[in-house]
């Protein structure tokens, strides 16, 4: 089941009659997105940027941009924020993370914003590897096995990571209104994997205070808690779907593929980090 996406005409954001049932906030405390129920659908508001309406079954997304907001910003909000939430209404599992191809297997990096997931994925993709996704890792069961489904072929990086990992020949998408992060497009300099790959490892990233690369196996209960924390889910009050979501995560957590990964955040160390991950994921 896919998601139908349609951009409507630009309009100002008027008051919403229903009370927000949830919100996402930025590190500075400002609200990034408000969650509202709208009859049988959901209205997701990004203040001063756009309103998205997601159908109850997650099959259709309509968007009304605020006048003056660029199409690139609207597309980004849809792909990285709204689409994973819509997929959750279809029973799909999407984790907040990035993923790469390691010897034909999918390896995911999951964690809080700012932990280096995108930088690590870009490091693989600019040094002989390929990335599958950035910001959202969609996992599906196929014939009893888990696979990572590739997403849109772009990676977002802060300027220091962009300068350390790419050169002037890398294709950069137009700038977005709300962030200074650059969106780098896959191509000759950033390799992208277009096909689904078997899920081999999930690494939950630490804060970066390790003196060397540290990889420790996680217990299923710990992995379950972390996946609950880092999975996209639109409506926590929808008890039946929440129960299904928990069951899917529990099934996934039973696999012996979860590890805590920490390493010193230094660009000069990334080759060593890649080697350690590649060797560990190949065991």
Q: State the helicity in percent bands.
A: 25-40%
Gyration radius, in Å: 19 Å
Shape: globular
Give the biggest sheet. 9 strands, mixed
Which structural class do you get from the secondary structure elements? alpha+beta
Strand content: 25-35%
- For the record, the count of structural domains works out to 2
Stretches with pLDDT under 50, minimum 5 residues? none
User: Taking all residues together, what is the mean pLDDT?
Assistant: 95
Distance between the termini: 35 Å
In N-to-C order, the SSE pattern is EEEEEEHEEEHEEEEHEEEHHEH
- The overall strand count is 17
Number of helices: 6
Keywords:
single chain; 283 residues; alpha+beta; 6-stranded mixed sheet; 6 helices; 32% strand; globular
Can you walk through the features of this model?
The protein has 283 residues and is of the alpha+beta class. The chain has two domains: 4-90, no CATH class; 94-281, no CATH class. The protein is built from six helices and 17 strands. It has helices at residues 71-89, 117-125, 159-165, 220-229, 239-253, 270-281; strands at 4-7, 22-25, 31-38, 41-46, 50-55, 60-65, 93-95, 97-102, 105-110, 130-133, 137-142, 145-149, 154-157, 182-185, 197-205, 214-217, 258-262. Strands 7, 8, 9, 10, 11, 12, 15, 16 and 17 form a nine-stranded mixed β-sheet that branches.
Structure at a glance:
Helix content is 25%, strand content 32%.
Explain the layout of strands and helices.
Elements: E1 4-7, E2 22-25, E3 31-38, E4 41-46, E5 50-55, E6 60-65, H1 71-89, E7 93-95, E8 97-102, E9 105-110, H2 117-125, E10 130-133, E11 137-142, E12 145-149, E13 154-157, H3 159-165, E14 182-185, E15 197-205, E16 214-217, H4 220-229, H5 239-253, E17 258-262, H6 270-281
Parallel strand pairs: 1-6, 9-15, 15-17
Antiparallel strand pairs: 2-3, 3-4, 4-5, 5-6, 7-11, 8-9, 8-10, 11-12, 12-15, 13-14, 16-17
Helix pairs in contact: 4-5
């Amino acid at each position: 089941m896919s998601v139908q996406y349609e951009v409507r005409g630009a309009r100002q954001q008027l008051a919403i009659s229903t009370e927000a049932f949830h919100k996402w906030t930025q590190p500075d405390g400002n609200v990034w997105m408000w969650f509202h129920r709208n009859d049988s659908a959901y209205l997701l508001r990004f203040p001063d940027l756009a309103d998205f309406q997601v159908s109850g079954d997650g099959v259709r997304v309509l968007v009304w941009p605020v006048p003056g907001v660029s199409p690139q910003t609207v597309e980004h909000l849809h792909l990285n924020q709204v689409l994973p939430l819509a997929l959750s209404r279809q029973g799909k599992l999407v984790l907040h993370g990035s993923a790469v191809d390691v010897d034909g297997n999918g390896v995911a990096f999951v964690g809080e914003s700012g932990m280096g997931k995108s930088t690590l994925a870009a490091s693989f993709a600019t040094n002989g590897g390929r990335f599958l996704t950035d910001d959202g890792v969609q996992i599906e069961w196929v014939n009893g096995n888990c696979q990572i489904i590739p997403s849109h072929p772009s990676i977002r990086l802060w300027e220091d990571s962009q300068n350390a990992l790419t050169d002037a020949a890398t294709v950069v998408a137009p700038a977005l209104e709300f962030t200074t992060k650059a969106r780098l497009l896959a191509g000759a300099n950033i390799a992208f994997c277009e096909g689904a790959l078997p899920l081999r490892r999930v690494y939950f990233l630490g804060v970066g205070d390790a003196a060397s690369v540290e990889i420790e196996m996680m217990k299923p209960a710990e992995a379950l808690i972390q996946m609950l924390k880092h999975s996209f889910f639109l409506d926590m009050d929808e008890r039946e779907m929440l129960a299904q979501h928990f069951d899917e995560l529990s099934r996934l957590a039973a696999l012996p593929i979860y590890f805590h990964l920490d390493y010193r955040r230094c660009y000069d160390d990334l080759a060593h980090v890649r080697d350690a991950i590649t060797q560990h994921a190949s065991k």
